[in-house]
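EI: anyone free to look at a 98-residue chain?
SC: sure, send it
EI:
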Amino acid sequence: MLRILRWLLLRLLRNLKEETNLDVEINEKFRYVETYSPKENVTKDVVFFVAKKIGGDVKPQEEEVSEIKWVSPKEALELVSYESSKIVMEKIINDLGI
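SC: here you go
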């Protein structure tokens, strides 16, 4: 399991760099998983991490990212589309005490 988590974190860092040009530090203490079923016999996990920007200038990869903006946690919560993701975001905000 630890090996899979390390692989996931490395992939996440690489994708964030490619798609946003940002370097981040991931806080591994805060990891959240949302499991859902988009259709019968299919289960998907969405994994949320808390990260801190440590470098890079924002430059979105146009093919992957339509917009990047910095917002407060409350504003971020209002931007989340899915109710299940809002629940995860509320937990993150509560756990971080912000």
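EI: The two ends are 30 Å apart (CA to CA).
SC: 👍
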